[in-house]
Amino acid sequence: MAEQTQQQQVLSPSTHSITTTSVEFIQHINVENAKFLALVVLLCIVSYHGALHFVYGSDSCTWLLSDGRFQGPHVWQPYGCMLHSYDKRDARYCMRYINYWGGQTHILFVGDSRIRQLYEQLVHHISLQEIPTGAKHSDMQFIDNELNLKVEFKWMPVANASMYELFKSYLNRDKPNVLFVGSATWTIKADNASKEALEEYREVLTNVAPIFEQLKPYMKILWILQDPVLQDKLSPERQMITNDQLDLYNKAAMEVLDDSCIIWKSSRLVAQGYNGDSVDGLHVGAIALNYDVQILLNMHCNDHMNFNDGTCCASREPITTLQLATAIVFAVCMVASIVLRCCRMHARKVVANGIIAPQNKAKIKPAVGALAGDCDVYIVVSSLAKFGLIMAYFFLCDRTNFFMKENKYYSTLNFFLPFGYVMALGLFFTEDSKQTIVLHRDQTDEWKGWMQLVILIYHMTGASQVLPIYMQIRVLVTSYLFLTGFGHFSFFWAKGDYGLFRVCKMVFRLNMLVIMLCFVMNRPYQFYYFVPLVTFWFLVIYCTMCMLPQVSATSADGSPWHYLYMVLKIVFLIAIITILFLSEVLFEKIFVTRPFKALFVTSDDSVKEWWFRWQLDRYSVVFGVIFGYAYFLLKRFELLDDKGNGSLFSRGVCWIVCLLSVIGIMSYTTFTFFCKTKPECNEVHPYVAFIPITSYIILRNVAGFMRTRYSTFFAWFGKISLELFISQYHIWLAADTHGVLVLIPSYPVLNVIVTSFVFVCVSHEISKLTVVLSNYAIPGSWKYLVRNAIIFTLVLIPVGFSHGMLG
């Protein structure tokens, strides 16, 4: 016993030291340190990508044609860029567009039956008519005068003098836009895989290389590497064509032609990754062949088209005058912030050391003291400088190809695995709330938080293609709008405060990030559809509550007629919404009226997107108002008690409403599986969305232990849910939400972790800066508020004229 005590005394100092170190480490785990770490990680990533571009170049066409991987069965992902899937209509539209601007599409294929296979697949992909199969071992040609399109195939299965003469002839005649060449299997077969044949092959390519050098300024020349064969499927007379032999020929082509033409390597990787459907072991199967054509069309068409999900070979958008002016303003703020920072440091040294002449102390010391403290000018300028750096990161991610982008890929595992992780984390970090009322602040933050995280997973994985998941996400978006109606109505009803200061501050905080993004990213306000929706419905609720007679809980206690007035206001609002829905013409006339038109139209000057978003959740906000009003009435007449930790109703009633709620959720889920198309589901959605929402609220609040317990993990995300929703467009997703941002190439899981970490930290900082700037943009004084409104109007006037808002 004495020995044990002695050991404990010896170990205790060490144990105490370890415990102290652990506590100190935990104390340093906070948001600010996380954001500092995110900045360090981001600087390292920027350096890494800068080195990649310096060494390998930044041409996404090179990435498309050189590397890639299969994300899943039958889904090819090029390295670093997004592949648009061209159907027949897209392909013809591309050719027609090139023809419209005076161009011609002339594509030439030269080689053996493998190259002919690619030619036939391309023609089949473009032609509106069935093209008969041509004679084997002969030249072929396809012409479409409507598209000014010419596709040729020259049968030259062996790299020899004839091939050299063909290429030489194009020095003195009309040249194709694109030339595809490939050859090896016939040489291997004819010479029984001899070394002499390989040397002759190398010699011919050496002679061809200078011709390619001369032709390269006038056309794209692609040498197609030989695809691997399936040895067990090859016929006996082709058994000498082995993958080892093909590798030798590919190596020779890369060594000789690497500087004189483009080596198409990704075609071989596609065939290597999936060639199980090959019929004879020599020619690639339908899936690999289709991807070859898709790569070809992406290379030729993406720079002419405007497909958001096709970034390979696409040039970046030109910078507009507004973007340039915004960048200059942010740059000025950054310089001013640095200068003020230096002045503050000097002023603090002056104050600390007291180095002020005695006769000047009375005059100078107050000014120096103010500069050394947190003066308003420094706070505003430094906040704008930080915002400018964040906007620069947004621009770098989604308006350049500095960082890579990839297509979304959906699989059941990809969606439900992160969903399960997030839910488990949320349930792990729970604690008791000090609030007991229905839908208290902690609970609504939690609700917004888990909904936002699920929406993020939904967007990243491209789960919109699965109709039941799409409809469940629609309920989550509707729930946001429901909370908008419930929250704002609750404030106006309880406080009776209809002052313009709160309205201006709310509109500013909702829209600051989006307005900045419109300027920096060159996108219309309607592109970020959720903020226009939330802002619009907030103003609708404000106008409804503010119009005479103004009603509130206090006024209703004084005059019971005010309860009826509130009901009439709700009925009036529903009637207006229904009229606008029934008359799309009236709706368009209202929302395309200048100067507000620019707020509701997309880049193609159409109000259809706004109509779609508005009508899809047209009753959600009103339902939030109705729910809030019913809740206050139940409390007012003591039919519901949520002041303590007990249940809202008697035990029997609680069981009944919980059972009905479960039935409601299951019924809506069943509906999502039985409706067949998105338009059909969306048509019914506005009338039934309240069922799962009400069911969730009842299940979450009826029991006291459920109502007073909440997830701090979800609530934290809920407080920055708006910033997360908007920021995901450009710094988590990519290509305006059509793809996924890649900070760590070739490591998808690590990329998601790092990208998410940076994305969340940036969103939190944006939320913090918005709060700071809103206090200065919307001050408490009418004089300064009017001043800021005039400045904002003066800024918007030239923008309005340039975008057709004012004429």
TrEMBL record:
Subcellular location as annotated: Membrane
Primary subcellular site in the record, as a coarse category: membrane
Record-annotated membrane-spanning stretches: 36-56, 322-340, 408-429, 450-471, 477-494, 506-522, 528-551, 563-582, 654-674, 686-706, 713-732, 744-763, 784-806
Keyword set, alphabetical order: Glycoprotein, Membrane, Transferase, Transmembrane, Transmembrane helix
Entry-linked InterPro entries: Cas1_AcylTrans_dom
Membrane topology listed for this record: Multi-pass membrane protein
Keyword presence, Transmembrane: yes
Residues covered by the Cas1p 10 TM acyl transferase domain: 305-789
Domain of life: Eukaryota
Family designation: Belongs to the PC-esterase family. CASD1 subfamily.
The protein's name in its UniProt record: CAS1 domain-containing protein 1-like isoform X2
Taxonomic path: Eukaryota, Metazoa, Ecdysozoa, Scalidophora, Priapulida
